[in-house]
Write a structure and sequence with these properties.
alpha+beta; 4-stranded mixed sheet; 5-stranded antiparallel sheet; 3 domains; paralog of FGE (formylglycine-generating enzyme)
């Protein structure tokens, strides 16, 4: 059996004379459940925006009990469940609450006294709760929404009940006042002053003592000039002008508003001129970049679009602060005193990146963590290739230098017969990967970190510019060149064709050897170091950052990045012996070609797998 409609015959105000409209019961041999049909729970009540005094009452939604399926032989159990729900204050929202259960029982047994008494208790509880909600001063919107739900249930149960109708009128009136106040406040926040004034006026016409509306109108009329003046005092000129516009609409374009506008614009111009001049003075100081940027940020906050003072300051900061007299991507060389040229350099753009390996990166170790953000506020120049044998030889010849391997008489080279790296007498900076003489355009190897630093010091003296080893952060930043994958080229497990000198399964040594651990399907045509710039440059114009030779950097070794510098400076402890090597090489395993890979090496180590490149300040 299925009932339809809202069970309108139920009227508690008439002593529950008819609890439900009942149809003939089904035969006893085929018991059918009674189903009390209902719409879902009452929707939340959202007062609508009010723009005119003619806005009507915000009506209550109808309520119908949730569906309850009940057989005649389940009545006693349903009554027990209803009594429990009543005691727990669960009255009407679900099919297992008191009111729906009592109504379902009455639809089977209209004279069931326990159900009628239960409904009467539920009615009394709902009346008391709704009245209390109407008097609650805090969380008014939520309280009225809940009261509306409860009154809708009461009206459903007793459509003609006097108390119910009176309470319904009170809720509807309160909800209308709340809707008007909320609409006025929303209009005030959005700058719709006419709408706000109309809404607050309606509230006060209906309830002259409504404190919320009085406060809204007072805020509308009195706060705007004060707000504009305060905002200008704090250099918030957008807020200041908005306050003046509102004041002009509320009070008319009075002389006080016009005078305030003149004063505020004069304050703006004076502040911008002072910030521009101060920022330009800051840029003449070697350490004035931070102060100049702070002044630019202040100027941008208060200037109108296209302000000339801001444009001048920003252009000078971008030019001087980030790159000096250079531009990103510019390639140059410095002249040497002996008439030659230094290594070819490219300007690396300033910016930031996440340095190191993430927690879930395959093959990564603790030494590469924690991953941390590093930012370079200034660009720098880096040599496009690894320093070559010819370039290093010019230094040796000019200074009569004796690099570490020369003094020691040996270095570590690749032995073709055994396939291992071995110490070989006579190998030094002039040798290649296998100990034989290296071509001039090959990257110089068999040099210690101190040899590399000595070359940088000589180059600085020759050019009058400051050359040095890159910091570890600079190296990884330049290697990634704006990417963030596991490898310098991304996350793909095989390097793009022609991207560098790596260990590939297609590489073959002069005697026919193959790598046991290599990038499957990759080959670069070299077993050993290749001439510099034999492969494509990365996105910032740098060659062989991830392959050919691993490279010395300026940092001392630290077992993790905890407390590492965030500005990209070298993490150096005077006197340290363990230094850092970055970037993969021609004989590295694929895991050691990852962008975050790093290695600790003694500062005296020389090897056929380690070279270097330089950075120059700009």
């Amino acid at each position: 059996m299925r009932t339809t409609g809202p069970l309108a015959c139920v009227a508690l105000s008439a002593a529950l004379a008819c609890a439900a409209c009942r149809q003939d019961a089904p035969p006893a041999s085929a018991p059918q459940p009674v189903v009390a049909e209902a719409v879902p729970a009452i929707a939340a009540l959202e007062p609508q925006a009010v723009a005119t005094p003619e806005t009507g009452v915000v009506a209550l939604p109808a309520w119908a009990p949730p569906v309850v399926e009940l057989h005649a032989d389940d009545v006693r159990a349903a009554l027990r469940r209803a009594a429990t729900a009543l005691d727990e204050g669960r009255l009407y929202r679900t099919a297992d609450d008191a009111v729906p259960l009592y109504l379902a029982v009455l639809s089977l047994r209209p004279q069931e006294r326990e159900a009628r008494r239960g409904l009467e208790k539920a009615r009394a509880s709902l009346l008391a709760s709704a009245r209390a909600l109407l008097e609650r001063p805090d969380e008014q919107r939520r309280a009225l929404a809940e009261a509306a739900e409860q009154v809708a249930v009461l009206v459903h149960l007793a459509p003609e009940g006097r108390a119910e109708r009176e309470l319904q009128q009170r809720v509807e009136a309160a909800r209308r006042l709340l809707a008007l106040n909320l609409a006025g406040e929303e209009a005030l926040r959005g700058g719709d002053l006419d709408g706000a004034a109309a809404a607050f006026a309606q509230v006060l016409e209906l309830d002259a003592d409504n404190s919320r509306a009085r406060q809204g109108r007072a805020a509308l009329e009195s706060a705007l000039i004060r707000q504009a003046e305060s905002a200008a005092g704090h250099a918030d000129f957008d807020a200041a002008l908005e306050g003046l516009r509102r004041a002009a609409r509320v009070r008319g374009d009075a002389p006080t508003v016009a005078d305030a506008r003149v004063r505020i614009e004069a304050m703006r111009a004076a502040q911008l001129a002072a910030l521009r001049d101060g920022g330009l003075r800051d840029l003449t100081s070697p350490k004035g970049l931070k102060d100049a940027r702070e002044k630019l940020e202040q100027a941008l906050r208060i200037a109108v679009p296209g302000d000339a003072a801001v444009a001048v300051l920003r252009q000078r900061i971008d030019l001087v602060a980030h790159y000096g007299s250079f531009r990103p991507g510019q390639v140059f060389t410095d002249a040497l005193q002996d008439g030659g040229r230094g290594p070819q350099m490219v300007v690396v753009p300033h910016g930031g990146f996440q340095m190191g390996a993430g927690n879930d990166e395959p093959g990564a170790g603790d030494a590469e963590r924690p991953q941390h953000y590093v930012r370079f506020d200034r660009g720098f120049a880096m040599s496009i290739t690894e320093v070559t044998v010819a370039e290093f030889g010019r230094f040796v010849a000019a200074t009569n230098a004796r690099p570490r391997a020369t003094r020691r008489g040996h270095s570590v080279v690749y032995d073709e017969r055994s396939g291992n790296f071995v110490r070989r007498n006579g190998a030094d900076w002039r040798a290649g990967y296998n100990g034989a003489k290296a071509p001039p355009d090959n990257p110089v190897m068999h040099v210690s970190v101190r040899d590399a630093e000595a070359y940088a010091a000589w180059l600085s003296a020759q050019t009058g510019r400051y050359y040095r080893l890159p910091s570890e952060a600079e190296f990884e930043y330049a290697l990634r060149a704006g990417t963030s994958g596991r490898y310098p080229w991304g996350n793909a497990g095989v390097p793009p064709e022609g991207s560098g000198n790596f260990t590939g399964s297609k590489d073959v040594s002069p005697s026919g050897r193959h790598w046991k651990n290599a990038f499957i399907g990759y080959g670069d045509g070299y077993w050993g170091a290749a001439p510099v710039a034999s492969f494509r440059a990365n996105g910032w114009g740098l060659h062989d950052m991830a392959g050919n030779l691993s490279e010395w950097v300026a940092d001392c070794w630290h077992a993790s990045y905890r407390r590492a510098p965030a500005d990209g400076a070298a993490w150096y402890n005077p006197g340290c012996r363990q230094r850092v090597v970055r970037g993969g090489n021609w004989a590295n395993a694929p895991e050691q070609t990852r962008a975050a890979w790093r290695l600790s090496q003694d500062s005296d180590v020389t090897s056929a797998r380690i070279g270097f490149r330089l950075v120059r300040g700009i």
